[in-house]
Each structure stands twice: as C-alpha cells, then as structure tokens.
Amino acid sequence: MLRRIAGHGSLSTTQRYLRPRIRKITAAEAALSAHFSALRAPRSLPGPIVMTR
Fold it and tell me: Which of 8, 19, 21, 35 is deepest in the core (most CB within 10 A)?
C-alpha cells in the first residue's frame, strides 16, 4: 500500500525510505540539537549608551 501511495514502481525503492540509517538519524539529531542550542543561546546586548552635551 505504501509503495502505491508513494508512487514507486518498485517495493525496494519504498523500503529504502522505511529503513533509516543510524548515521542519518545521528546527523539529523546533531543538526536539530545545534538549531535549538542557537535559539537558546543568550544574545549579546548592545553596548552602553553614552550621552554627551
């Protein structure tokens, strides 16, 4: 059924997408962690404002 939904002519093509490789899972996890770390990282504040007369 999944082969037909995906429009693949061969079941082996569909099976490639259903068996994720550990290397790809690990890489995706690292990319997602880096993304969320960047979102949580404190942003630098602008320098002090100096007023002159």
Answer: 8
